[in-house]
Structure formats: C-alpha cells, structure tokens
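Reviewer comment 2.1 asked that we show a complete input and output for one of the modelled complexes. We chose the norvaline case, as it is the one discussed in the main text.
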Amino acid sequence: MESLIGCNFLTLKDFTTEQIQYFIDLSVDLKEKKKKGIAHEYCKGKNVALIFEKTSTRTRCSFEVAAHDLGMGSTYLDPSGSQIGKKESIADTARVLGRMYEGIEYRGFAQDIVEELAKYAGVPVWNGLTNEYHPTQMIADLLTIQERFGTLKGLKFVYMGDARYNMGNSLMIACAKMGMHFTACTSAKYFPNEELVAECKEYAKESGGTITLTEDVLEGTRNADVLYTDVWVSMGEPDEVWAERIADLTPYQVNMKALKNAKETAIFMHCLPAFHDIKTKIGKEVYEKYGLTEMEVTDEVFESPQSVVFDEAENRMHSIKAVMLATLGGYSL
Ligand code: CP
Ligand code: NVA
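Response of the prediction step:
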C-alpha cells in the first residue's frame, strides 16, 4: 500500500479501498489501546491547529482528545477567533500555520478553501467538514458498521434525506469504494449530482458495489442493512429553506415503518446532531412554526436498540486519531 505519511485528508476520493481499510484497522487498534489503558503517545512533541469556521461538538472534541492521547498539543481557532478570510487569505494563513504546526484541521464552507489550505500549508491538512464532504465522519461510520456486521462488502446501505450535501456525497463515495450497495432514497431533487454519481459508479465497478437512486421508500429501504439520515438543513444554509425541506423530505423520515421494512438485523445511523424531539432551540422553533415534534428521524427509531448513533459518535475520536497518526507517522500496523 502506498504510504499515507504526509498525505492530506480532504475527501475519500483520494484514497484506495486498501488505504481506507487501513484507516479503519488503525482505528480498531487505537480503540483497543485506549480501552485497555495502553499509552499511545506516538506523536509526542508535535502540535496541531484546529480551525473551525462552523460550530462543532464531536469533531472538535475528537481532534482535541485524540491529539492529547497521541501526545500532541492542539490550538482551537473558533469561528470568530482568527483572522482567516477576514484580514488574511487562506494561502497566507496556511503558510503561517504550516511553520508552527505539524498538521491542520479545517472545518468550514467550500471544499475549495480546504484544498487551498492544503496546497500552501506544507503539512497534512484534515477536512473536518465542508459543504461538499465530511471524510473523517466516514472512517467512524465504516468502523461502526464493521463492528456490527464484521464486514463492509456486500451490505445494503440506505441514505434518506438531503443526499446532495456533505453527508450524502461522502457516504456514497465511502460505500462505492468499499464494495457496498449504496441507495439514496429521497426526492429526486435531493439526489447527489450526476457527475459524482458517475464517478462513484466507476469506483463501485471496481469494488463490487452498486449505486441506486430511488424515490420509492418501500423499495429503497427493503432488505437494508443500514438506514442513515442527517439533518434536513445543514450549517450555513438559510432559515428560509426549512419550509421547503420539511415538505420535500418528510416522506423520507426514518421511522418505524422504514426500519421494519429493512432487515431484522438492520442498524440506524446518524452523524448527529439530530432533531428527534423538541429538546433543542431549533427543534422548538420548528415545532412552533410547522408543528413537527421530530424531523429526519423519529424519537422511537433514535432511541431503539437498533440505533448505534452513540457508538458512531465515540468512534469519531478513535478514527480521527487514526487519520492524524497515519498521516503524521510515528506508528503503523
Ligand atoms: N457529526 C459531526 O460532525 O458532529 P459535530 O458537528 O458536532 O462535529
Ligand atoms: N450536514 C450536516 C452535517 C453535520 C455533521 C451539516 O453540514 O450541518
């Protein structure tokens, strides 16, 4: 396998099936070490910068804990706490941070920005979510699926909701690379763009996977191994889109009917945060305006024994640790 040391981690498109499997296997190894209390400070003396132009709970905490466990220092730059984009260009920021840090995480808007950062930084850059892709989430998700089924190849993976954004795009790429059967089950308006679908069909040809797009919920969810959804309105999108999204995507809510139509052994996944009740500010506002008490997933499914969302959240940390370690070097399997 081609070495991962020094590589950027911007989208799974850039990695082979073997390299993706390596990230997963390294995550398994690091998770075991963490659980057993075996120290793994393989990157002692290094430092990483964590740039967040959008908010985060899981990704930020995962990078900070993982960096600490690997023996590294970390600096968190919040959406308002740096000059990035306002007083200083991405190229200049990259060249400054590249002089001080061994790696840089970036969460923000267009994929072009993280690519520009990577072009100039001279150290590995990790994409912590852009509008187009969320690749660190993919390693956690694949790890979670592998833990449940022992394998990835051949599984039927169904994504319901807005399949044109970071999560839908990234999951389609991840499944296509790993020989899984990916179905986007949603209104045609929310299918991933044709160019990406064509690209993923090529990956799938090689890996033995398939890509299916359907508006039919019964057909889409039938015999599924995994049902996956994400919020209907993503960070950075305007509030005005809520009404349209609710109207378009309510038929594609993950509810008990959809889950029962999947295999008995099926699992429910969500990258989180999720709107499954009205215990959040936005959840309450949507309830007051549109009368919905749950959105992309019902509370019943979210809280069911088939839901693995908190394993998935924990796995963010182990897999982000693996991504940093594999690209910084210091230990390999
Ligand atoms: N899943 C995920 O990326 O969560 P955060 O937005 O909390 O980082
Ligand atoms: N699609 C969501 C994912 C959050 C992890 C967003 O971009 O807000």
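The pocket of phosphoric acid mono(formamide)ester (ligand 1) is lined by residues 56-59, 129, 137, 271-272 (CB under 6 Å). We note this here for comparison with the apo prediction described in Section 3.2.
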